[in-house]
Predict the 3D structure of the following.
Amino acid sequence: MNKKIITILLLMIFVFSLSTAAAELKDPWVSKKEQGNHGGMLISTLLGDPKTFNTIIAKETSSTTITDGYIFEGLVTRNGITTEYEPELAKEWEISEAGKKYTFYLREGVQWSDGEEFTADDVIFTFDVIKDENIPTSSRDVLKVDGEFPEYNKIDKYTVEFILPTSFAPFLNNMTAPIIPRHKLHTAWQEGEFNNKWGINTDPAEIVGTGPFKLADYKNGERVVMEKNEHYWRKDPAGRSLPYLNRWIRIIAESQETESLLFENGETHFLSVRGIDYRRMKQQEKRNNFTLIDAGPTFSTNFLVFNMNPRNPNLKDEPYKYEWFTNINFRKAAAYAMDKDTMIDQALAGQGSKQWSPVSLPNKVYLNEDVAKYPYSLEKAREELKKGGFSWNQNGELIDSKGNKVEFNILTNAGNNVRESLLNIIASELRELGMKINSNPVEFNTMVSKLSSEWDYDAILIGLTGGVEPHQGSNVWMSNGHLHMWNPVQKEPATEWEKRLDELFINGASAIEIENRKKYYNEFQEIIAEKLPVIYTVTPNSIYAVRNNLKNTEVTAYGGVLWNIHELYLEN
Amino acid sequence: MRDYIIRRILIVIPLLLAISILSFFIMQLSPGSYLDQMRMNPDISEDLIKEMEADFGLNKNIFLQYFSWLGQILQGNLGESFTYRIPVSQIIISRLFNTLILSLAAMLISWGVSIPIGIYSATHRYSWLDNIFSVFSFIGLSIPNFFFALLLLFAIVRFNLPLPINGMTSIMYDYLGPAEKVIDILKHLLVPALVLGTAGTATLMRQMRGQMLDVINMDYIRTARAKGLTERNVIYKHAFRNAINPMITIFGFQLSSLFSGAALTEIVTGWPGLGKMMLTAVRSKDLYLAMAGLMMGSLMLIIGNLAADILLALNDPRIKYN
């Protein structure tokens, strides 16, 4: 009798040890940075509450800055310094059949934060969900190639392949999409409950990812608490599981003023410094044991766009405005009137850079520095206006060839201080040229509906956030795009150069080699700088203040302080 | 009296209905919708926006939208938030208590300070203390809340005061004992409650002072004094009870702010209340969340007014409702 019990017990122990041993990590990644101390609590701030922890349907950065890269990971990622592709959950990948077939070999033995093994089934499940028309996710359309969702198959437990209808280089960028656990979400998806899963009221233990951290607690409006994922697949040089940090608390600060105060009070470990705070922080640097790091220009942009849409309903009353805005000399004059030095000094407190090309400044791979530039010169602006058939009356007011006085409105979204002061600077320079400018900050929603559906504006000062992959801008630059702001959703490209832009984007996406792609995107940047459908202004620099006891940091504009959070540690 | 209260409660129904119609249509008629923020995102396609529009019912006729919302409300369902995709009631409840603490503390400060000071100022008119109070109340009236909050926070950082800057609880809150938890919240409460409290104090103080001055010069006060009553009795039994009536009405209005929160102060001090969330909901047109907030505010305003009217009748026997 006793023997029986013992054998059963032994058997149980054996089975139990088998099941834990099943997921042994075969392909760990080992940190090349110096060995750090394990333990410690990192404290940082967030500017807003997350709206959901369901990263697939999340649309706001306030949600994805919590989940993506920290709780969930993709098959591939981008290096925080070089912005080049790097393996993440896939240890390597192959591109074959002239760029149509991608095969990903997954890291074997990676575990979800609850100990379940990560396999090809999770990858297939994630793309099943993304493909499902009932799931409101932006990933679906981004993944479509020629309107078709790629075919994806499980080859074995650790291999998946994707087959595209045509060669499409931006595809790899989409493979940075976070992978979600099948064992947690499959039933909910089957029952049609996926969209309501993992909202902000979810028990944190339910939310399971492969990333370096897992959610431990969320207090609405107060803070998000993350805890180390004990099963993480990245290792320190000594072979222990990363991250070094045990806990990571992210205080929800709601305003940038409070963020700075918290940092100055010594309560947080790093801060994204605004231009206007730069000088004050510089004075405290030594005394308060932190270092200010200028990581260079950010991906955000600010530009002026003129309405060149022949469908503008206001044109019935004032058809001449269409003539002005489509006149290339007029737009060049406006470009010459951009006093970017003053903009950087006044709107960005000296911490900014001039932008000339539509590709964001920190995009080291695709930025073409050799595009047409329009250094500030009211003289040149006046020459351009003369060339364009404009002249001045006795009062110094600018009139067009038919004698109409040049007067128009420039809108921007109210509440954005930087943009409001940029607008003031632009308006005062254009007034110098004899134009009558009504500058007008409006509610964001109003501006968007004017821009995207009513088309009844004159000019708008706005910004879009760029990325590393130029094809992400195809909605903006291709003539049928709904964000082709100056003349959206065209059936046929209105001009020769817009037609060329369409071709360049199609070719740029289907070329595989970066060198070939660069050629197309270089020409695209030259065209935009030459034809000026949008006129770029200035970009703020990203400056971080980092406490000296936070080690292994390598701060960049692309990755910020946290891109290598698994390697960061706190010195005792 | 009872009939009056019943009548007042019955009036609430058409009143709320009218308020809901107004707020719903004004919000819908102002330009733009919840999906505009997404329209400006290059990653989100026109198709997806159309799908979501259908999903949220935003493509339906506006009257149909209103009536389906009303139908839901009558069944006790406040709808689902567009932003959070969870029921509106859950979002509101998660913050309701926080807002209540802050509003109560602020009310306590403003009434507790302003009534005595108002009486003192009136009875010692043009004394040097009265002048100082007046100066302070004018400063209080003219300084914006958010700015005052920032000043206080800046002082905390500058002078290294042992007070928190942000939020309602400290990071170690979960590991504290019950008494320490209360102290922790009180510490966090100090700045926002002080800011909101003093903002109310200035107006209330001036009101109280003015009312008292009016009453003090009345004939019956002179009579009371002539009768030989103590000054204390004259002021508190005769003058104060007559002067307080308008204050009760103000109190009724203030009750409505109990749940509506104070967005700017909340933002600056990081207090996790309803104000900031409702402001965002209205601005981003998260329709049902915003509607719930507006309706809650209106309901509290009506209840507050009713409460004030009842209190008035209790305080002043001359007031009778028939």
